[in-house]
Structures are given as structure tokens and as C-alpha cells.
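Appendix B: a complete holo record

For completeness, this appendix reproduces one full record from the ligand-bound portion of the collection. The bound molecule is copper (II) ion. The inputs are the chain sequence and the ligand SMILES; the output is the full three-dimensional arrangement of the complex, encoded as C-alpha cells. No fields have been trimmed.
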Amino acid sequence: MKVKILIILGIFTALLVGCQENKSNNTPAVQDDISEVNSSPSKEEHSDQELTLTTSKVKWDFGNDIDGEAWTYNGSVPGKEIRLTEGQTLQAKLINKIDAPVTIHWHGMVLPNEMDGVPGVTQNAVMPGEDFTYTFKPKHSGTYWYHSHQQSSSQVDKGLYGPLIIEPKNKSYDQDKVFVLDEWLLNRNSQNGMGMGMGTHMGNMMSGDTGDMDTQMLYNTFTVNGKTSPDIPPAKFKSEERVRLRFINAGYQKHILSLSDQSYKVVALDAQPVKDTAPTTDLLEIAPGERIDIEFTSTDSEDWYIQSMDNDSAATDMRIPIQIDEADSNKAVAEIQNRHTVSQTFLESKDPLFNEDVNADKTYDMLLGAEMHRGRGLDFTINQEVFPKTPTLNINKDDIVKVTLSNDSQFDHPMHLHGHHFQIISKNGEKLDKPIVKDLINVKPNESYEIIFKADNPGDWVFHCHDLLHAENGMMSLIHYNGYTSPVNIHDETNKPE
Ligand SMILES: [Cu+2]
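The structure of the chain with copper (II) ion bound, as generated:
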């Protein structure tokens, strides 16, 4: 099957490059009704949370009469939802019961380098039958997730991921739900996945947004918390409840979500709180690896859906029923027309890293490219090289580092920096007047961004595209703190950090 995919992908990318030249049976993992409002601080608040994450292969029930093999943490897709309160330390023992080496990367977390879970960079991959204990104390509340970083394009694709939520000490909401989005290539009874992909995505090509077309063509099923519609369990709210929804994109293509006529506020991006904004009914666009938190007060109108507005035949799979207590049960799929997507550059982080213009000690230009190679398919490059030949950014502790990301390809590149937050300071050469702090920025074709961060967490860190298929095919680089010596060897052949 993979050969077939590569051939079709090859044909398709040749087309695009040409254009350019002319110009499982399981219980649901995510808990319901987790938070209690105004609960008094529990005794456990400052104690450690110890847990075990055991990898296993399962036959997973995706819903809608579709099943298939998944690789899991603790037997479910997504893996166990981990919740801590600010101030708690997490101690997670990974036990590997799969016949392949694995790790856990704690996506978005600022933590000590040796806990970052990148094989060959921060640790050796955890071999079958072995274990590794990760211990760290999260610095900031927010929405995070965890996933394997060993051959991650394949292992995350198979389901080795889960949500990690750090709750603030004072909550502003009554209900808190996590939705982890993903795409799969599955055997669907009445449909031929690959054929369907090629045909329907041509429509997308015509509409102009082709940024993740290469990846879209590989999948035929969308899931939310491991389930596909109509088997995504409803989220149930009471009228007048304050609701927080946390969206995590664990897949490799961006998703556009409509919240029907429910007006809401974006309250956090990549776990960074944003300043209060006017409520909106705009569409939410969430890039691979990204997290967006929203809040709203549920009203006693009729039931509704959160639904994918992706120009993709699998969009109807991604439809989350919202049930309001005592509402008319006239659930209808709303017609959503002419809505914009929320522009992140209009939002403002509550806690900027830098309050004023600062001079960078180090600057680095990262040119993101794609190059066709006969026999090998498409390389995704940084400054015309593929990892591990991509240039390493050598920095000193306490440097202020400015990176200019420029996308010279026809594909989206959601670039993710490990171990640090960065502040976006300009888009397409224009300075942003509102600071935005993130750990991932989706750089679309022909876009450029300047980002800036403080080198305050010594180690070796990867900076890579979170379309993990792109990372696998080269789009990854290292940030190295001068004087730091990694305890592990990237050239050890069992370690596959991409
Ligand atoms: Cu990419």
C-alpha cells in the first residue's frame, strides 16, 4: 500500500512542482465532566502525579463500523488523558510493549532537555520490553499533548499520542472538554480510500488552498478522540454553563472548524493565554501540532454540531454533537457560509516574552523548501538540506535569538520549536503590533515570519515541521547550546528522531 501511496504522491507532487516552475474495542480515552468549578484546592494539588503509560497494539474501533490496528498508550486512541494542576510534578513511566523502539515527547512543554523525548538527541529510544521514567514540573497551565518522537511520522500516525492538560489553580469555566483531531487511512466498507482521495482533493486544488494537499491525499477518515462520526460521543452542556473546549491537532493536515452560531472567544493558543477579545462565530483553523482553547457560555437553544469545514471528502467524519440540557433536540447540520477564519495575528498574548523591541544576539534565516528527487520522491528542506545535514543553530545561553522562517514551497509548514516559547514579531515583513507567543507557527506558501526567543533552556532541541511526513523527509534542524554535550548519539541506528 505504501508504494502505491508514494507513486500517487509522486505524480501529484510532480504536477505541483511543475506548476511552481512555471511560476480498536476500547473505552473512550477522554473523560467526561472533568472539572468542578470553585472546588477548594485538594490535598493532592502539590503532590506528584505518578502514572504509567504502556504501549500496545490494539484493534481499535473507530466507530461507523470501521476498525483497524492502532498503536496506543494504555490501549486507547488517544492515549490516557493526563491532567495536572499547576504546581504538580508529573512522573510518567513509559513501558514499551510494542516490538519497536518508542519515546514520549511532551509537546509544548518547557522542561529539562533530558525529558524531551527525542531519540538520538535527548535520550536513547526505549527498546521493546524496556521502560523510561519522565519527570518534570510543568511551568505553565494550558493545553499540551504527548506523542512518540521515534519515527514519529509513522508512530503518531498509528495513534501514539494523547492529551496533557495543566489546569490553572483558578478556573474560569464549569466544563472542560478536549478534542484531539486526526486523520487516518482506513479500510472503509463501501469506499475505496485512495481513489476517493485523488478525486475529491482535485476540487481543493481548484479552490486554491493546496498547502497540505500532499498530506490530504494520503487519508480517507477524520477522527475526534479516536472516533469518527456518527460515533463521536456528544458533549453535553447545561444552559448557562461556562464551557472551555480544547482542540489539539494530532494529525498532519490543518482543520477548519465551525461552531455553528455559537459565539465564543479564543482564550489560549499553544497553551499561551490570549487577551480578551470580542466574541466571534468565525471559523477556527488549527494547524498540525497546534492547540486552540476557546470558551463560551452555553445557551438553551437547540442542540448543534461542531463540524469540519475542510474541503475534503472526510469532513463529514469530523462532526461533534453538542447536546444542551433541556434543549429541543432538533439537531441540524448548519449551513455555514461566507465565514472567515479567526486570524491569529489579531490576537494578543497575555504574557509576552518581550515587551519592547530587542536586539537579537543571533539571527538565523530558515528557508523552507521542497525538492523533487528522482526515485526518492519529495525532499522537504531547510536551507536546501535535509536532516541531519540541515544547518545547526549554535547559540549561547541567554542569547536572544531571531529566526526568519520563509516558505519557498507550495506546502504548509507548521514549524514547532521544542523546549521554548517564541514570540512572533513580523509576518511577511510587516511588524505585528500585538505580541503573540506560541511554540508552533504554520508558515503557508510564500509566507514569512520573524520569531524571537530567549535561550534560557540549555540542551539540544529540535525545530521541525509538524507535518511529520515533512519532518521525516528532511524538514528538521537542531538548536545547540554551546558547551552542552548530548548524552546520546544521533547516529545510533536505533534512534530515529524524525
Ligand atoms: Cu512541512
